[in-house]
Specification:
Layout lengths: L12 H53 L3 H49 L3 H11 L1 H14 L6 H17 L1 H10 L6 H40 L4 H11 L5 H15 L3 H26 L8 H15 L1 H5 L1 H21 L1
Length: about 350
């Protein structure tokens, strides 16, 4: 006859309750810690992208010239700074004038837009819904939630640039640290994963910068042909905001349409058509061609991730949702899918 288990070999009901409660408490602490630090992790990711840009440009220069890595890195950083300074020197005065004019013009064009809407029953309904106290409160709540920052915009930019500088100067110091956190038998796999992550981020960033430049050029040409005032400032806004998938082009279209309304409703419709055409070309021809070797991310997944991540980290979640999804997809493929297939 089997002997009953002694009291020291089994848990009592009270002990099981305490163990379960402890597990749930630990999970709650982990989730709370993750939510609290998630916005900081996004700043680290943004700094990493800056390092990826400079290191990628340095490698490109080194492959073409055969120069020492420190020399190519100096050329990469100094060349980028000089290039930006040169662009600012060439078009800075005109850009500053147009941006200043745009900031003064938008309030008046907004009032003009309200006047156009007020002429139709549909426009009157829109204005009534828009100006209602409840709708305004909900809109302000959503906007403040989605566009909040971690340390303030200037503080966030400073942290990103600081992290980017350190990662650019000595990236292998940090990758070696990550490698040491992995058990010895898994370090070769960790090297492969880190290498693929770096390559994928480099390809994605290259394609994104190229797409931003193309959007700027096409928008500038179109607005200039239309005779739009402040065309350069509007094109620069469109180029920069194209970095943000889905929401960036929509936000960039708003000031352009408001300015176009001052020229007439037909001009506004032409501007809307121009922006939609540019985004169609960018989304269906330019980006797929440049990033054809990169993991394809469905647009619906990008939008969903932007909305979800934005609830945790505000504006940086919207901006960095795509690289986050790419990182998650690559980690799942490398650490789970390939293991099952093997």
């Amino acid at each position: 006859m089997a002997e009953p288990l002694s009291s020291d070999k089994k848990y009592s009901f009270v002990q099981k309750v305490w163990i379960t409660a402890g597990i749930f408490a630990l999970l709650a602490v982990i989730l709370l810690l993750f939510k609290t630090t998630f916005s900081v992790l996004l700043l680290i990711l943004a700094g990493s992208l800056i390092a990826v840009f400079f290191r990628g440009l340095s490698e490109f220069i080194g492959n073409k010239t055969g120069l020492n890595s420190w020399i190519t890195m100096t050329i990469s950083v100094a060349g980028t700074i000089l290039f930006i300074a040169g662009i600012i020197w060439l078009i800075g005065a005109e850009m500053q004038t147009q941006l200043s004019q745009l900031s003064k013009t938008l309030p008046n064009t907004y009032e003009d837009a309200k006047g156009y809407l007020d002429k139709s029953w549909l426009g009157q309904e829109i204005l009534e819904k828009w100006s209602s106290t409840q709708s305004s409160g909900k809109l302000n709540e959503v906007v403040s939630k989605f566009f909040r920052t971690t340390f303030g915009m200037l503080g966030d930019v400073y942290v990103i640039l600081l992290i980017g500088a350190y990662l650019t100067a000595a990236p292998f110091l940090y990758t070696k640290g990550i490698r040491k956190l992995v058990p010895p038998k898994g370090r070769d796999k960790a090297d492969d994963v880190l290498e693929r992550l770096g390559t994928s981020m480099k390809q994605w960033l290259t394609g994104k910068i190229f797409a931003m430049f193309v959007v700027f050029v096409l928008t500038a040409i179109g607005l200039k042909i239309m005779g739009m005032p402040m065309w350069l400032a509007l094109a620069i806004i469109a180029g920069f905001l194209n970095f943000i998938p889905n929401f960036g082009p929509l936000i960039a279209m708003i000031p352009a349409v408001l300015v176009a309304l001052s020229q007439g409703p037909q001009t506004a419709l032409l501007v809307v058509g121009l922006y939609l055409l540019v985004q169609f070309l960018e989304s269906n021809l330019i980006t797929p061609k440049v990033q054809q070797r990169l993991t394809s991310v469905p647009p619906a997944l990008i939008i969903s991730s932007q909305l979800i991540v934005a609830t945790f980290a505000g504006i940086w979640g919207i901006i960095l949702a795509t690289p986050i999804i790419l990182i998650v997809i690559i980690l799942v493929q490398e650490l789970y899918v390939k293991k099952i297939e093997d």
